Amino acid sequence: MSPMMKLVDHVVRSFKVAKVFRENTDKINSIDFSPSGDTLISCSEDDQIMIYDCEKGTLVKTVNSKKYGVDLIHFTHAKNTAIHSSTKIDDTIRYLSLHDNKYIRYFPGHTKKVISLCISPVEDSFLSGSLDKTIRLWDLRSPNCQGLMHLSGRPIAAYDPEGLIFAAGVNSENIKLYDLRSFDKGPFVTFKLNQEKECDWTGIK
Question: In DSSP terms, which residues pair with 136 in a beta bridge?
Fold first, then answer.
């Protein structure tokens, strides 16, 4: 096994663009690596999903989502599957088989645009945040929402690396930490951040 590269300043400055992909005809709105890191998926406002081989630097497949649109795409733990939010018709989250371009399951519930999607690092569950001021907890095996949180403003969400805690960013000014096993009891800690300029958070890690 080759030694790990340390991303120190002079190493980062030495990086150069190795490949440019120009298949999309509109703005790319989301990208994600597969759990193994050998595949990259992207989606665009032209309603196309692109799948790339990272080792070969080649486009593997194009999947169209003209009916529902596509945003916030994420690989799941199952091979050749992904979830994404919708930009057309409604705000349903969709579970897609990339092998045959068929939907495995739909996750309805949000009433406004979904702005945050996060897959659990350890199991088949995910979090979604919406402009309807809710965060929902889902299980990929069921179309029914497993948990619902009403918040005071625009929410985004993320899991910790162990999948035991999740963070909710609210109105781009507060971060609330919840125990996934007892999130209905409220956050166990809240951080209030002072904004230097007006902006909306698009994600947290």
Answer: 128, 148
Could you tell me if 174 and 203 are in contact, meaning their C-beta atoms sit under 8 angstroms apart?
A: no
pLDDT tens track for 73-120? 999 998 899 999 999 989 999 999 998 889 999 999 999 999 999 999
**Using CA atoms, how far apart are residues 187 and 197, in angstroms rounded to an integer?**
26
SS3 173: coil
Q: How many CB atoms are located within 10 Å of the residue 106 CB?
A: 14
The residues with which 82 forms a beta bridge, in sequence order, are: 75, 96
SS3 183: helix
Distance of CA 46 to the CA centre of its chain: 19
Second CATH level (architecture) for the domain 111-196: Beta Barrel (2.40)
- Residue whose C-alpha is closest to residue 156's, from 148, 146, 168, 138: 168
What CATH class does 26-108 carry?
A: mainly beta
